[in-house]
Amino acid sequence: MSESMQGLHRTHRCTEVTRADVGKTVTVMGWVQKRRNLGSMIFVDLRDRSGLLQLVFDEETIGAEGFEKAGTLRSEYVIAAVGVVEVRGGAFNTALATGEIEVRVQQLRILSESQVPPFPVEENSQTREELRLKHRYLDLRRPDLQRNLMIRSHVMQEVRKFMTQEGFLEIETPILTKSTPEGARDYLVPSRIHPGTFYALPQSPQLFKQLLMCSGYDRYFQIAKCFRDEDLRADRQPEFTQIDMELSFVDIEDVIAVNERLLAHLWKEILGIDIQLPIRRMTWQEAMRRFGSDKPDLRFGMELHDVTDVVKNCGFGVFSGAAASGGAVRGINAKGQAGMPRKRIDALTEFARGYGLKGLAYLAIQEDGSYKSSFAKFMTPEELSALCAAMEGEPGDLLLFAADKSKLVYDVLGALRLELAHEMDLIPKDQFCFVWITEFPLLEWSDEENRFMAMHHPFTMPMEEDWDKIDSDPGSVRAKAYDIVLNGQEMGGGSVRIHQDDIQEKMFEVLGFTKERAHEQFGFLLDAFTYGVPPHAGLAYGLDRMIMLMTGTENIRDVIAFPKVKDASCLLTGAPDVVDAKQLRELGIETVTEE
Ligand code: ASP
Asked: Could you tell me if 455 and 478 are in contact, meaning their C-beta atoms sit under 8 angstroms apart?
């Protein structure tokens, strides 16, 4: 029988009880982690969100009935205990905050019993994630998840504190809205009152925050839920949270400055770490050239080498061919890896093929200076030594090369660099390497759509010095866009926005929008801009990713209370699910099941 709170008040969370409380009577409440019977004594580890506290029961103190009750306690029972804090009789447990004390219980209440849980509630659970997600309410009792969510809460509070101090207003924008231009698929919500029409859930508050600038709010922020119906990927969630902001009367430097202060504030408050300001900057061009990625992990080297010029006339057709057709030949030097087994090199080749590359060429420089290689036989000794020199290759090194279209070569080598760094254990785990990536291309060619697409979004301002190339060489125009990258992850990004109608119109034209379509989709924003709009710029962070980076977790589901799995379903609630025929009828919706 469960008892109730009647008259009892919790005085402390488990780890709020300290040595200074010895001799005091406390009332604690929580879950039974573990019970141990030692003849005339019973020990219980009591758990709440703060941690563990040892309770001791002996018959003399609690009486026969209470002692018997204590003997019935099992894991996950919810109890209240009133007792006196003592220094532990037995050995201290240095692993616990409360390891030197215990509470000798005088009064015990069982507030709720528990079935045997399907898995033990413990740190670093080895239980398969599916089972844990199905019983997420139990999984969320685990100390590691509780710690992550506490950090998340702390971050949100500090963001609010900092942004408010800096003169930002927290303003909510709608969830039921019109499609926003972030380029992913929208989640749609049917309208009952207007049959046949749909709201879209926001992919970001982009258009609204720009409108708020039009309306004079000056500095806006929001911790905003966003929704993107993207293809299945392990590290994506269909709904996620952004720390979103927009500022008026600013240029890039102002946005960067306020965000560097924000990041320094968060890292200091949450982790006690001083970020060195200013944060390093790198242009998109440089990041691609040196790391094959626009989100380079700068915790280690292993930079790419461009050897196109060195091999353009060599005897190896794959290299010379790629160079002749306007592609690129680049390589990375895996230091000291010349002895890598053939099987592993084959696996790396498969890895590269996964990106669409036809093959990976390798050259292992043996200690005696000879080569083991997939292509050396096609090249002269002079060509080979020139290639090794360009790669800074020394005996013992393994050189890996990709030859194809420039973009593909970057993608493959950028990924390979990370793969090898993990394998070679080159990545220090305790470092935070921040970098701003700037001067992104404004446009990106899409083979699929056969047109240019906005790399960030259609409201991103081009760099003034490149604007005259918008007709002759649109692909070369750079944007006033920036990303903040941490340890190889894109943590946030934003841009200065276009606030001049002639530039905006031209942008739409380049993107292949007709005037009518632009107006259909974004007319309200374009209209607003005709009534006086300040120059403005902004940025948004992925909060989930930020928390992952702060906590060192690699699983995005470990920083979200109720996450979805890869196929966008929720194992706990069973969403998405079928609905009543009546609900559908009201919405004027009929479903068809595809064969
Ligand atoms: N709305 C953008 C995004 O979600 C961020 C920004 O430009 O402020 O990526």
From this structure: no
Name residues whose C-beta falls within 8 Å of residue 284's C-beta, 6 or more positions apart in sequence: 294, 437, 438, 439, 440, 441, 478
Spell out the SS3 assignment of 78-98: EEEEEEEEEECCCCCCCCCCC
Cis amide linkage into residue 181, ω under 30° from 0 = no
> What would the DSSP string read from start to end of 446-509?
ETTTTEEEESS-TTBPBPGGGGGGTTT-GGG-BBSEEEEEETTEEEEEEEEBP--HHHHHHHHH
* Cα 170 to ligand 1 centre (Å): 17
Tokens linked to 319: 């290299």
Distance 206 CA to ligand 1 centre (A): 6
Please state the atom number of ligand 1 nearest to the C-alpha of residue 497: 7
> Given the CA of residue 203, which atom of ligand 1 is nearest to it?
4
Kindly give the confidence (pLDDT) of every residue in the chain, 595 residues in length, as a single tens digit, with 9 standing for 90 and above: 689 998 999 999 999 999 999 999 999 999 999 999 998 999 999 999 999 999 999 999 999 999 999 999 999 999 999 999 999 988 999 999 999 999 999 999 999 999 999 999 999 889 999 999 999 999 999 999 999 999 999 999 999 999 999 999 999 999 999 877 767 899 999 999 999 999 999 999 999 999 999 999 999 999 999 999 988 777 789 999 999 999 999 999 999 999 999 999 999 999 999 999 999 999 999 999 999 999 999 999 999 999 999 999 999 999 999 999 999 999 999 999 999 999 999 999 999 999 999 999 999 999 999 999 999 999 999 999 999 999 999 999 999 999 999 999 999 999 999 999 999 999 999 999 999 999 999 999 988 888 999 999 999 999 999 999 999 999 999 999 999 999 999 999 999 999 998 999 999 999 998 889 888 888 999 999 999 999 999 999 999 999 999 999 999 999 999 999 999 999 999 999 999 999 999 999 988 887 6
DSSP class of residue 276?
A: P
What is the Å distance from ligand 1's center to 243 Cα? 10
Q: Which residue's alpha carbon is nearest to atom 1 within ligand 1?
A: 206
| Torsion, Cα of 263, 264, 266, 267 (10° steps) | 110
- Measure 362 CA to ligand 1 centroid, in angstroms: 40
- Answer yes or no: pTM beyond 0.85: yes
Structure-block tokens of residue 569: 């379903």
Determine the residue of 168, 177, 204 to mutate for testing ligand 1's pocket, defined as the one with the most ligand atoms within 8 A of the Cβ atom: 204
Contact status, residue 71 vs residue 37, Cβ threshold 8 Å? yes
Closest to 100 (Cα-Cα) out of 30, 56, 53: 53
Which residue matches tokens 């508050």?
205
Which residue's CA is the nearest one to ligand 1's atom 4?
204
Go through the chain and tell me how many residues it has.
Answer: 595
Rg (the chain; Cα; Å):
30
Break the chain down into helix, strand, coil percent, rounded to 5: 35, 25, 40
**CB within 6 Å of ligand 1 — which residues?**
182, 204, 206, 493-495, 538-540
One-letter amino acid at 562 equals F
Q: Which domains does the chain have, with CATH numbers?
A: 14-112 (2.40.50.140), 123-275+536-595 (3.30.930.10), 300-423 (3.30.1360.30), 429-533 (no CATH)
C-alpha neighbours within 13 Å on the C-beta side of residue 37: 11
